[in-house]
Amino acid sequence: MSEGRTWQRRIWARLYTTGRKFTWGHWAVVLAILASLVLLALETEPGLPENAARWITRADGLIPILFACEFALRVWAAGASRQYAGVAGRMRYLRRWVVVFDLLAFLPELIVIILFPELWATARWVRLFRLFRLLKLFSMFPAFREIGLAVRDAGRRLVATVAMAGILLFCAAALLYVIEADVQPEAFGSIPRALWWAVATLTTVGYGDVYPMTAAGKTVAGFVAILGVGLVALPAGILASAFAERLGKRKR
Predict the structure, then answer these.
(1) Do 197 and 173 form a contact (C-beta atoms < 8 A)?
(2) What is the mean pLDDT of residues 228-235?
(3) CB neighbour list of residue 59: distance below 8 Å, 6 or more residues apart
């Protein structure tokens, strides 16, 4: 076996994982992802000292370069797997959704750094692409994959729950529009306006910025709030059941 092939296998073993075995390379990637997200949060703080802000900006510029190097190494090392060997195999690897999200997680930032360096400090929207790195974490840890499979198994039931929620939202907004439109035209003067109240009530958030004032409106609002408690609990129960079923299958 050639030395290049040996290095391919070593790098592939350290950078690619199905979640069964973690190496120092995998943990380094996880820590880099978490560090990039911490920096993303810190740089939004306007009260940072000037020196700290400057160092954070420099680190921000370094992180996309590190991820680009990791990505290039991983694509090269993918040849160690028979499934991804050769040009056709590399293209097959690059078409995987996780790999596409990996590319989106650093490429926009890298383009701005190389082609538009003067915009780097002010182009805040580019940093939002880092959120794609969270999807990389989902692919690395088996627990996240199990949750994803549970969501897929419960897909039809969840869609039915979302449809039910949409119907309840519209009905609640329509009812409060009819009852409260004359009393509070700014808040309930149309069904779209009343939808904000319906969302806040059915999700049990209850901001309190909009609320019915008539007796009939309060009565309807009470029923909607009770329905909201069940509506919020329903998807949680469906997901818990699907997750338990999947864990049961694994144990068998």
Answers:
(1) yes
(2) 81
(3) 35, 39
